Automatic annotation (TrEMBL):
This is DNA repair exonuclease SbcCD nuclease subunit. The keyword tRNA processing does not apply. Pfam families: Metallophos (PF00149). It comes from the Bacteria. It comes from Caloramator fervidus. The keyword Transferase does not apply.
Length: 329
């Protein structure tokens, strides 16, 4: 049996800030190439790692254009739900989303912990399971990543979560391959969500694969060096895995605006510095800016006048932001 896996397509109707090309047309070309590969190379099942859509309510006209292409895949796409596909990163809201509609129309099929079983030509069985993204998927409880039992000769598990090979120097939760490799019964774990990807890793005689997002959408400088790729998994009497770059994908410099990425990169550094400074003062409830300002003022003996000026500026900024958000809709 041959599987094709790709992840994080992020279908949307407009251009991300950092893109120089026509993003929608680029996405269509990529999907068309994946359809062609699926047909020409006799792919039995197409697997997808979540974030098919950039937001849960992508416009009907855009969705219609993409359905035309997705329908050309030889079989429905077996997928998990990503954080961008749904409202509030909550998979329970899927029935109100475009992805939920596609599932109802049988254009995609959802994977869950209940295995789907398929058979190879030589009588071997393969189970496929999946885990959606949900709040705290990367918390202490790693059950989204763990297949407890094998009902078949081989097990494939698809998950949308922050799976990494090496620790990440950030405040966000993540899951290391080391945390799950000894415990999962899956022979192949396919992950989406982390757009950089980490390629193919083999731990405890099990494969852990993230080819990276099929579209370069995040404002990270590293995206310039990355060529979007997909995975072919061949299972017969043993497992063969291969990562291949998309032929139609252009080099990063052609589609991404380096200057804009550098601006975003520097903004992120400043923001992280700011957060670090704040947290070094003590234990604050980060969301309550007014409290943070008051605490810092107290700590640094800053005068009432300056403190109040800062509070007023923040109130004004918040007002502006809320107006802008309304305009964007
Ligand atoms: Mn994503």
């Amino acid at each position: 049996m041959r599987f094709l896996f790709f992840t994080d397509l992020h279908i949307r109707g407009n251009n991300p800030r950092s893109r120089k090309d026509n993003f929608v047309e680029t996405l269509k070309a990529k999907l068309n190439e994946l359809v062609e590969i699926s047909i020409n190379e006799n792919i039995d099942k197409v697997l997808f790692g979540g974030d098919l859509f950039d937001r849960p309510d992508v416009s009907i006209s855009v969705v219609k254009d993409f359905i035309k292409i997705i329908k050309n895949f030889p079989t429905p796409i077996l997928c998990v739900i990503g954080n961008h596909d749904v409202y509030g990163q909550n998979p329970n809201s899927v029935n109100r989303t475009i992805l939920g509609l596609l599932e109802e129309l049988k254009i995609v099929e959802f994977l869950d912990h209940q295995p789907k079983i398929f058979y190879t030509n030589n009588g071997k069985s393969i189970q496929v399971t999946g885990s959606n993204y949900y709040y705290n998927v990367d918390g202490k409880d790693k059950s989204a990543y763990i297949v407890n039992k094998k009902f078949a000769d081989y097990a494939i598990h698809v998950v949308h979560g922050f799976l990494l090979e090496k620790p990440f120097n950030n405040e966000v939760n993540y899951t290391l391959i080391d945390d799950i490799a000894p415990f999962t019964a899956a022979d192949v774990t396919l992950a989406g969500h982390y757009h950089n990807g980490f390629g193919i890793k083999n731990y405890c005689n099990k494969y852990f694969i993230n080819p990276g997002a099929i579209s370069r959408i995040s404002n990270a400088l590293s995206e310039i060096r990355r060529i979007p790729s997909y995975v072919i998994i061949d299972i017969d009497s043993h497992i063969n895995t291969e990562i291949r770059p998309l032929k139609c994908a252009q080099i990063g410099e052609n589609v991404l605006d380096r200057e804009k990425l550098i601006i975003e990169h520097n903004k992120n550094i400043l923001f992280n510095k700011f957060v670090h400074q704040i947290t070094s003062y003590g234990n604050f409830e980060l969301m309550k800016l007014e409290n943070i300002i008051s605490e810092i003022a107290k700590h640094e003996n800053i005068s009432e006048i300056i403190k109040n000026e800062a509070l007023n500026k923040i109130a004004l900024a918040q007002d502006l932001i809320s107006k802008e958000e309304v305009n964007l809709e």
